[in-house]
Write a structure and sequence with these properties.
With about 260 residues, the chain is mainly alpha-helical. The radius of gyration is 18 Å and the shape is globular. The longest helix is centred in the last third of the chain and has 30 residues. Strand 6 and strand 7 form a beta hairpin. It has eight helices and seven strands. Helix 5 crosses helix 6, helix 6 crosses helix 7 and helix 7 packs antiparallel against helix 8. The strands form three sheets. The chain has a three-stranded antiparallel sheet, with helices on one face. A two-stranded antiparallel ribbon has the order 1-2. The protein has a two-stranded antiparallel sheet with strand order 6-7. It is about 50% helix and about 10% strand. About 40% of the residues are buried. It folds into two domains: about 130 residues, Chitosanase, Chain A, domain 2; about 80 residues, Chitosanase, subunit A, domain 1 (Up-down Bundle), CATH 1.20.141.10.
Length: about 260
């Protein structure tokens, strides 16, 4: 479980803005979905732009609201995006060579590299950037590029109609990456006898997806404690709130949260 330290308001950015610009607040369905994933990632409904920790899951440093990591390629993409938006006096620029070296080094079968050499002081550097609107924007840009947009495209391909299914796909992309999430979707389609696009009841398909994901999490000792990412959605599905209409009360890692 990751404990909250500082909390920041939810923001999203769809295009680069000048330094000091204010991002557009996230609203509606996406806001609820991102709040749920924030609970799973950082035990808070607020996005943790300042988070950085080595949780020893063979991914090196995990950081930012979406759990970018130094050992699974997306961390380097975030640093490059931040450097694009803030080319001068960028506190994270000096870490990019180490990130690129880690990316080029061998990774395990799950695409993970635990090496953190060259990253001394990185957590402290992340905290110095946390209130910079451009750093927040960079996080949203990469999260949208790698996780939100692909997951919602796959939702459309599957014929998904409910917010709860779109949210679970987004969280799976964050947690398992695109390849892992697509594999889970394939398993769900097989076990449910088709996808929603094929006429299979979407609730039935989502239940199959959740069961497949739960099995994957339980089988990996690194992620066995993350099963609440599935169980929260199972309870929401059982409640009938497929549109994720707030207020929503959930319990995760033993703590209670209310999304309003």
């Amino acid at each position: 479980m990751r404990l909250p330290l500082l909390a920041f308001a939810l923001f999203a950015t769809l295009a680069p803005r000048a330094a000091g610009a204010t991002a557009t607040p996230i609203t509606g369905e996406k806001r609820v979905i991102m709040q749920l994933t924030s609970i799973f990632e950082n035990s808070t409904t607020e996005l943790r732009y300042d988070y950085c920790e080595n949780i020893h899951d063979r991914r090196g440093y995990t950081f930012g609201f979406a759990g970018f990591t130094s050992g699974t390629y997306d961390g380097a993409e975030l640093l490059k995006e931040y450097l694009r938006l803030k080319p001068d006096n960028n506190p994270l620029a000096k870490y990019l060579p180490a990130f690129e070296a880690i990316d080029k080094a061998p990774h395990d079968s799950e695409g993970r590299n635990p090496d953190t050499r060259g990253l001394d002081g990185f957590p402290e550097a992340i905290k110095t950037c946390a209130t910079d609107p451009l750093f927040r924007q960079a996080q949203h840009n990469i999260a949208d590029k790698l996780y939100w947009a692909p997951s919602q495209k796959e939702a459309a391909n599957l014929g998904v109609k409910h917010a709860i299914t779109r949210g679970q796909l987004y969280d799976a992309y964050i947690n398992h990456g695109e390849d892992g999430a697509l594999k889970l979707a394939g398993t769900a389609t097989k076990n449910a006898g088709g996808s929603p696009k094929d006429g299979t009841d979407e609730k039935q398909w989502l239940a199959a997806f959740l069961e497949a994901r739960l099995a994957v999490l339980k089988a990996d000792k690194t992620w066995a404690e993350s099963v609440d990412r599935v169980r929260v959605y199972q309870k929401l599905l059982a409640s009938g709130n497929v549109d994720l209409k707030p207020p929503i009360s959930v319990t995760c890692y033993g703590d209670s949260f209310t999304l309003k």
